[in-house]
Amino acid sequence: MNRKSVTATLLAAALLSGAAMQSAFAAEEKTNPVPGIPSNTLEMWGGKDGVHEWAVALFHYIMLDTRINFLFKEFGNPERQIFLNTQLETMVLGGPNEYQGASMTAAHADLNINMEQFNAVVEAAYNACERINLHYWTCNQVIAALAPFTDDIVTR
Amino acid sequence: MKRNERAARTGSFLKAAAILAAGLFSGNAAAGFYNDGKVLLTGGVATIDGAGGGGITPWAVINGYGTRDGINGSLHYTYAYLPNYSLNSYGASVGLYDRLELSFTRSTLPTGSTFDTVGLIAGLLPGAVGDTGIEPFNTTIEMDVFGAKLRLFGDAVYTSDSLIPQVSIGGFYKDNKNKDLLTTLQAAKRKDWEAYVSVTKVYFPFSTLINLTGRYTSANQTGLTGFGYKDRTNGGSGKKDDKKEMRLEVSIATLVAKNTAFGAEYAQHGTTLDNVGVNLNGIGTGQLVGAITDALGPVTDVAGVSLDHLDDTLTQHEDDWYDLFFAYAPNKRISFVVAYAMLGNITLTPDQHGFYLSTHLTF
């Protein structure tokens, strides 16, 4: 692998997960769904621990999905991504902003993700909610909270 | 139309649709274009007019599961069992790049005892009244519906941080095959177009989809009894009203699981043929009632039904439509809708409420 491709691979991996962009300053802000999500949403998710369980299940389903798993196999570090996703989802569901990853725009800029791949992750998100026995309506709060990132993530 | 001829046409249509579907929108031949990347149920199901949406109301979504990166086709069949009619609607549609939707649907409406009675009366009248399009049995209304829809802007699903909905415009061209029957019902036209604008948005915090549609049309009973009104009492030289008007339609669906939704719909209907009687080739309702009562002489009721209300029986009415529905999509290939449709008066027959079953195949 030449230097250019190594650099590109590392950059892509970093962008996908935000792993190499760790910073003391959060690169992403809480979204503002309209209407807002209920104030007790994070509690209904089981707090940060519940979000972590969901993130573990999310990546289980992502890695089984041939539409998207190659992206994560090539560029990702699932453990790191579970860690960062737990932070991100905890934040958007009403918890503190402890997100240490890159912004969604920066993290996905070069991955050339299309709408089908984005929707595949949404489907994995629903499967993950079922896996941890989270009610569909409660699950939809995270879809509402993450949906504003769509245009940042889907670049193709 | 003869039954064999009709069956042959139906078979030909289904065969053509299947070939079209198989050849263009699935398999390796179109692997570069084929796409089924949308999330379950986000393309809607199929309306009786063939557009993507609910059961009776088109939504702003593009039918099928194609994203902006490809095309996706679908077939649908809907059956509504009503006390005096049964509606069959079947057709095909294709969604192109989540931008454009094209559809074709054929609706057939076998009529029941009310039309049979009118057909019988027409046959019994002294002197020939010509072809009224209504037989003493098996009178069937047929209509072809060609549809197109264009998404203008917005995303019904993912713009959750904004109140801006997905907005689409669309239109139908409807070709009713029953010229003589529509003349008897005093409709002005048997073919016409209608246009609509739909706004649709999913509110994830409420797990609810809301759709509003404004339909610009002059349809009577969605076109199944033609378009507008033309007075046929004096050889068709009387009053004519075929002006289109904007009518409101609303759908609300609550998502209870990723593949299941409950909801309700409302579609405003026109009143152009409301309180308009039948006209059997120049013989209006008044004359018809007079001829019947003269023929029956001292008989004042038939089977306990007073002939005093015979003119009501031969007078049309139209009501707004409502339905309550349950939609279930076990996977992206097939979905089912069960609904209870409350359609009120349909032409000569009141209280047309009944169950509705629809299936939607996508590929």
In short:
Helix content of chain A is 62%, strand content 0%.
Which architecture of chain A per CATH? Orthogonal Bundle
CATH topology of chain B: Porin
Strand segment tally of chain B: 20
Q: What's the main sheet of chain B like?
A: 12 strands, antiparallel, barrel
How large, in whole angstroms, is the Cα Rg of chain B?
A: 22 Å
Structural class of chain A: mainly alpha
Strand order of the largest sheet of chain B: 3-4-5-6-7-8-9-12-13-17-18-20
What is the count of DSSP helices of chain A, taking H or I runs of 4+ residues? 9
**Could you tell me the strand content of chain A as a percent range?**
under 5%
Share in helix of chain B: 10-25%
Q: What's the helix-strand series of chain B?
A: HEEEEEHEEHEEEEEEHEEHEEEEE
Number of domains of chain B: 1
| Mean pLDDT value of chain B | 87
CATH class of chain A: Mainly Alpha
Q: Any idea what the shape of chain A is?
A: globular
Pattern of helices and strands of chain A:
HHHHHHHHH
CATH architecture of chain B: Beta Barrel
Query: How much is the radius of gyration of chain A in Å?
Result: 15 Å
